[in-house]
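Look at one record.

>
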Amino acid sequence: MSDCIFCKIVNKEMSSTIIFQSTNVIAVMDINPVAPFHCLVLPKEHYTSILTIDPGIMVEITSAIQIIAEEHDLEEGFRVVNNCGKYGQQTVDHVHFHVMGKRQFEWPPG
């Protein structure tokens, strides 16, 4: 999609700090972090939500999150968030997962 910010990142049309990359998945640091460590893990192919993504890509995303957690010393814990749809507060229509760590989170979230 030509107007998708994440597609622009994948296509190197927009700069970002890439921390992980595989054939089908990329992870970049969030430009508006809410934790000392905050990255976004997303498929390179454009899928609008978790409801439309290829299950095989989900396996690759999960593997990427495991690698990122190990490489960035998140062993004390971290949070993975996916916002899906309008009521889920999804603001970019390209499925992505926030990986946040290095601080204590509260539940329920505020």
About this structure: The longest strand covers residues 37-43.
